[in-house]
Amino acid sequence: QACHGPDGKSPMKEMAFVGREWKHGTKTPDMIKVITNGVPGTVMMPFKGRLTEQQIKDLATYVRSLDKTLKPEKK
């Protein structure tokens, strides 16, 4: 929330989850990887060890839900 804003509409374009191109993939597993490992060379830190695997999965699902242009994933 602090970096990306509560609604994913960060004023910093590269940190917004809405209205931008996804650099690291649009699928939940892609987002899980980014949240888990972070993005080297950026301020996106890894959350492995800070959040449980379930919390990371839930967070990835939430982040993906903020961008209404993404098609729902098949379960």
Summarize the structure.
By secondary structure, the protein is mostly helical.
Which class do the helix and strand fractions yield? Answer: mainly alpha
What percent of the residues sit in helical stretches (DSSP H or I)? 25-40%
The whole-angstrom Rg is 12 Å
Which strand-content bin applies to the residues? under 5%
The span between the termini is 27 Å
Q: What about the largest sheet?
A: none
**Overall 3D shape:** globular
What is the residue-mean pLDDT, rounded to a whole number?
84
Low-confidence stretches: none
Order of helices and strands: HH
The number of helical runs is 2
Give a count of the beta strands, DSSP E runs of length 2 or more: 0
Structural descriptors:
75 residues, mainly alpha, 2 helices, 32% helix
Task: List strands and helices in order, with pairings.
Blueprint: H1 28-37, H2 53-66
Helix pairs in contact: 1-2
Explain what you see.
The chain is mainly α. The chain has a domain at 24-66. It contains 2 helices and no strands. The chain is globular and about 30 Å long. The relative contact order is 0.18. The model has no long low-confidence stretch (mean pLDDT 84).
